[in-house]
Fold:
Amino acid sequence: MLNEKAGNIAGTIWNALNETEGLTAKQIKKATKLVDKDLFLGLGWLLREDKIATSEVEGELFVKLI
Structure:
């Protein structure tokens, strides 16, 4: 069941990122209305699938699609 939830959350995050050049974690949370634990669950899924790249920009986590 957690796998299905993680996949759904990852899809939500992917959709938010798809129309941008990338977003900070705060911007993703705002766009998707996810709480921290779900946000990081979805980001982990996308990282494992090699769908996103992360970096630190001005002290903030920045995420973009690959």
